[in-house]
Design brief:
The chain is α/β, with parallel strands linked by helices. The chain is built from 5 helices and 5 strands. It has a 3-stranded parallel beta sheet, with helices on one face. The protein has a two-stranded antiparallel sheet with strand order 1-2. It starts with a strand and ends with a strand.
Length: 106
């Protein structure tokens, strides 16, 4: 996992979600918009937010452009498409169950 040529793995100090834990606390309003247009980067970050309670307990709102398999968007996003609308619903539901106001668009 990398962005701008820099590793953004879960434990890397440059991971954008890890920086939330190191710089903010529960009293801060934290809004995360994830729209990198590369599923190989976006999905691990979205799943990290879902799975890591040290992060998701701090995030108030999450907005995600999830590039799922849909014929309506295939012409523009065919290479980037991964998953289904059902996957989007499950991710958002999981985050909402953890207290994150989670929203997606395709």
């Amino acid at each position: 996992l990398s962005y701008l040529g820099v590793s953004a793995g879960k434990e890397n100090k440059l991971n954008p979600l890890r920086s939330i834990v190191s710089q903010f606390d529960k009293d801060d309003l934290i809004i995360v918009k994830l729209d990198i247009d590369t599923s190989d980067i976006e999905l691990p970050l979205a799943n990290q937010l879902l799975e890591d309670d040290s992060i998701n307990k701090l995030v108030d709102h999450f907005y995600f452009e999830h590039h799922v398999h849909m014929k309506e968007i295939a012409a523009n996003w065919n290479i980037a498409m991964k998953g289904s609308i059902q996957d989007s619903f499950e991710l958002m539901n999981g985050l909402r169950n953890k207290g994150v106001a989670a929203h997606f668009w395709v």
